[in-house]
Amino acid sequence: MLTNKQKQFLRSESHHIKPIFQVGKDGVNENMITQIGEALEKRELIKVSILQNCSEDKNVVAEQISNGTESEVVQVIGSTIILYKESTDHKEIKLP
């Protein structure tokens, strides 16, 4: 679990990152979970954008992705989810 201080730090780190995945009307699927998991391993911190045609609630989508990739939801802001997972091979972010 991330502390509030760590989440605040990760939010500031994610400020300049552009979303690299989009969740559309089909919602979250296994293939997407796998790809997001691989991206998290390489980058540790990513953003996922939820499109307007997505029928599921953004918090449910965030939870599905988080559970599927064993990552932490840093924040759900607007239609963007910020996810963090400590990398085993590419560790670059040092949490406070």
Automatic annotation (TrEMBL):
Keyword flag RNA-binding: yes
Top-rank taxon, per record: Bacteria
MF term (GO), any: RNA binding
Domain CRM per the UniProt entry, residue ranges: 1-96
InterPro entries: RNA-binding_CRM (IPR001890), RNA-binding_domain (IPR051925), RNA-binding_YhbY (IPR017924), YhbY-like_sf (IPR035920)
Keyword Signal: no
Protein name: Putative RNA-binding protein YqeI
